[in-house]
TrEMBL record:
Pfam families: DnaJ. One of its GO terms (biological process) is protein refolding. Residues 147-217 form the CR-type domain. It comes from Candidatus Nomurabacteria bacterium GW2011_GWB1_47_6. This is Chaperone protein DnaJ. PANTHER family: DNAJ HOMOLOG 1, MITOCHONDRIAL-RELATED.
Length: 259
């Protein structure tokens, strides 16, 4: 499950550094009223969003996922109301009951978040470009019968010439990802900061924004076998998109249409 750190702090993605600090301080005040796990998530969210570099890395992945998470986050005012009602109640404060109420409040948040995460995962698969590319290519009947080659011009994500695919600006070194400690995973899922690589650029390339790839136009000669019909799909190895900060490529699949 990929975490929404903005959701955890109860702020909007465009929040200023001051708003991030204020949200964290507000939640930290009530640290004794929430579980250690929830407090750890607050600390983790603040560590990412309060650091300009790690926030930039996180925001890049966040924008690609789209505005899936519209939940308002943890309502601190509700925490304060519960705390005040217990404080001014004539009966003794029951810590177990207080924690139960808080867990019910947070449970609603977690339940809705899980639903939003499931939606996000499905939406992400549809929104992000796959490594493979599928295109149509019109050929003449004579070329289909006798075979030969035809040039194809198409667009793909190729290596960024500015950083030679590393994602770093000016030859800056890759640094170990602090949130996942270089493991590439957090809680069993790919790290949202380094995209599961364990390292990220110290300074992002200004052209590709740290991805190591940019949109490029490419021309290839597609070999057309003899007696090709309209149901034929040809594969061009490594003709697809370049992977994120990785020199691996997907494949290009060309569906032939005989005119």
């Amino acid at each position: 499950m990929r975490k929404d750190y903005y959701l955890i702090l109860g702020i909007q993605p465009g929040a200023s550094a001051e708003e991030v600090d204020a949200a964290y301080q507000k939640l930290a005040i009530h640290g004794e009223m929430i579980s250690q796990r929830q407090l750890a998530e607050v600390e983790e969210a603040y560590a990412i969003l309060s650091n300009p570099l790690s926030r930039q890395q996180y925001d890049r992945g966040y924008r690609r996922r789209g505005k899936i998470f519209q939940f308002d986050g943890l309502d601190v005012n509700q925490l304060e109301k519960i705390h005040l009602s217990k404080k001014h109640s004539p009966r003794r404060v029951d810590n177990d009951n207080l924690m139960l109420e808080l867990n019910e409040l947070l449970g609603g948040l977690v339940t809705e978040l899980r639903g939003r995460v499931a939606e996000a995962e499905n939406a992400e698969q549809a929104a992000l470009p796959e490594d493979d590319i599928f295109v149509d290519l019109d050929i003449s009947a004579s070329l289909a019968k006798g075979g030969g080659a035809k040039q194809l011009d198409y667009e793909r994500l190729g290596e960024c010439a500015e950083c030679t695919g590393l994602g770093s600006w000016g030859g800056a070194a890759l640094v170990t990802c602090r949130p996942c400690r270089g493991k590439g995973k957090q809680h069993g899922e790919p790290c949202g900061v380094c995209a599961g690589l364990g390292k990220h650029p110290e300074i992002n390339c200004q052209r590709c924004l740290g991805e190591g790839r940019v949109k490029t136009r490419r021309q290839v000669e597609v070999a057309i076998p003899k007696q090709t019909n309209g149901d034929t799909t040809l594969r061009v190895a490594r003709g697809g998109h370049r992977l994120f900060r990785d020199n691996q490529y997907g494949d290009l699949y060309v569906k032939v249409k005989v005119k």
